[in-house]
Amino acid sequence: MEPLIRLESVAMLYGDNGTSAAALRGITLSIEKGEYVGITGESGAGKSTLLTILGGLQVPTSGSVRFDGVDARSLTQDQLADLRRESIGFVFQAYNLLPYLTARENVMVPMSPVRMGSGEKEEKANALLASVGLSGKEHRLPSELSGGECQRVAIARALVHDPSVLLADEPTGNLDTASGEQILDLFSEWNARGKTVLMVTHNPANLARATRSLRLRDGQVEEDRALRFLPAGPAAV
Amino acid sequence: MNIRKLAWKNLLRRKSRALFTGLGIFLGIGTFVALASLTGQMRQAVQDKLDRFGANILVVPRTDELSLGFGDISLGGTQVARAKLTMEDEKAIRSIPLKERLRLVVPFFLTAADASGKDIVWMGMPAQEIPSARPWWKASGSMKLGKGEVLLGSEAAARLDMGPGGTVTSGGRTFRVAGALAPTGEKEDGMVISGIDDVQALARKPGAVTFYEVAALCKDCPVEDIVTQIGGALPGARVSAIRQVVESRKAAVDQFRRLGLGVSAIVLAIGGLMVFVTVMGSVQERTREIGVLRAVGFRRKAILSLLLWETGWISLISSVTGASIGIAAAILVAPLFGMARTGAALPPAILGVAIGMALGLLGAVPPARKAAALSPTAAIRSL
What we know:
The structure holds 2 protein chains of 2 kinds. Helix content of chain A is 28%, strand content 26%. Chain A is an alpha/beta fold. In chain A, the strands form 2 sheets. In chain A, strands 6-7-8-3-9-10 form a 6-stranded mixed β-sheet, with helices on both faces. A 4-stranded antiparallel β-sheet of chain A has the order 2-1-4-5, covered by helices on one side. In chain A, helix 5 packs parallel to helix 6 (177-192). The longest helix of chain A is centred in the C-terminal third of the chain and has 16 residues, at 177-192. Chain B is of the alpha+beta class. Chain B folds into 2 domains: 3-49 and 251-381, no CATH class; 57-65 and 77-241, no CATH class. In chain B, 53% of the residues lie in helices and 22% in strands. Chain B is elongated. The chains are: A alpha/beta, B alpha+beta. Chains A and B meet through helix 2 of A and helix 1, helix 9, helix 10 and helix 12 of B.
């Protein structure tokens, strides 16, 4: 059975030939459905680059990336965009909400290019905001929300198309401990529904909920270990 | 939420930028519509004034060339009129289908006759037509000719050493000099001008006409049509448009149109450049936002569409506003150009809105394409 994401000998160079720097050096790994993977490492180890490759935001300089058995190199930019919209949700450390849109409108942004009634979009956004505990704050602008609330809006936005993978880059990095715990609870809930979570973090405590830990060093996987076994049953399939 | 609404929301957020982008289109379209309306009115006014200034069609008898010679000796030639023009022909001229276009039909009669002992050409024309047929004449004394009165061309006055109040004798009659014309540079400078009846009587040719001058209002109809119709009404006459007059009028009118178009083109080009610069700046400023949109699954086309919708909204609003202000300005300033205040001219306004939309969208296409081509990698680096 094909893994959800498969990386083979993936290398990523930045810069031109004269001054190129390797962010990733020959990484090979597989991500299975239902995994909760914590990616750690020092600054500059290649964590964020790995995450963007796993999320189809960039294609590696060499090596192959396969999503559900499909080679990323065979996909056009538009097909990659469709893949991101339909199968992958992104959560960023800095939330990256559009400041001129309300919480509900931010959640609706990924649905903008999709033909769907505005009432249906609003209903879906309201339900997602309720699921992350933001009922009653649908009409607030990001500037009127706390950091934790902004991150929850960002999570609701990432989940709007019910993706199979959630990618999070330091999602609790800007939050206090209590807010960070709430975010991690949401990830755990999502993972418990059989969805895959890939989270870059500096905080070893965040790994407590992960099923697998990947530690990077100088663009290579230094350690890849299971933290707990995936529960058996349909949810893990 | 859809791309149209997202574009609108972004505009509301960046009001000053939107205002600046729209300002270029607003000024461009406002100027274009104001100038197009004004020059349209000016063309009409100028054409009307030019049409009222002198004749543009000449009617003369059709002539045959008769060469004179004997053996190898050539004595030159002479023109023999096949038919002569008379005062009755005015009725025929005024009966053509385009008769409403005829502002003036003036008969002239020329004869060489004695004037106080000197041979001078006498020109007869209806005295009451002098102000409209020769509005550029200026005279010392009076321009009003009564029975038995004459005007002297400047050279004729010098030859006769005569001024207003003097008398000229010819054919046993005495004519009082009502006025002396200032030099015109035309042949009439050397002529004695009198009422056509008096000159016909002097030549003993009552009712005879040498030529007719016709002043036709040629707006919206080619002068050639009028020429053809007069030629049909007077088969024995040769009718020709005074090409120089027609062309100079056309040239004067075209000057206004070219001026308007030139200024509008410059202002519109500046407007387009402003759109290009502001949208390009907006794209660079919004790399992060575009990165987020690409990350959440916006295709390139969706990014292109978003930026074009933004510019489309600005273009529509600023074009409509610019066109409205342009029309209002044209109406308000029309009296300053000596024109009557007229109603709103819709064609330039509609054309202006269309140009404004096209200009805005064309100016936004290069930066929008750049934004759409922005790789998520480049955009994501700014996250």
